[in-house]
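#struct-help
A.M.: can someone run this one for me? Single chain, 119 residues.
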Amino acid sequence: MFDWNQFFVLAQELSLRDDDASKRTAISRAYYAVFHRARRLVVMEGAQLSRHGLVHDEVWDIFDACAGPRRTVARLGRLLRAARRSADYQGGMDAIVRETEQAMARAQTAMTLLDTKVR
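D.P.: on it. C-alpha cells below:
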C-alpha cells in the first residue's frame, strides 16, 4: 500500500526550490497527502465513498460533521484544495512563495492532527 506521507515529504522538498513549477507542485502534493490520509481514515472507519471527483467533498464533509480536531482538518483540507486549484490552473500567482509557505504550514498541521488527534 502506498504511503501518502511520501507526497508530503516530496512537497516539503519541492517547496524549498526557487522555481514556480516546484512550488506549484509542492502545493498540489501537500493537498493530496492530506486528502489521501483523511480519505484512508474514513474508509477504515466504514465510510462508503464515491469513485469520482465528489469524493473530495465527501471526505471533507465527513470531517466537518465532527467537532474539534476533525473539523479543523476539514477546514485545512478545503483551504489546501483551493490553493491546489489555484496552483494548478491560475497562470498568474504573484505571491507563489507566500502561497507555498502557507500551504505547507496548513498541510503540516493537518498531517499532525491526522497522526495524533483525530482517531
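A.M.: thanks! The first helix runs from residue 5 to 15.
D.P.: also worth noting: The helical segments are 5-15, 20-44, 55-64, 69-89, 96-116.
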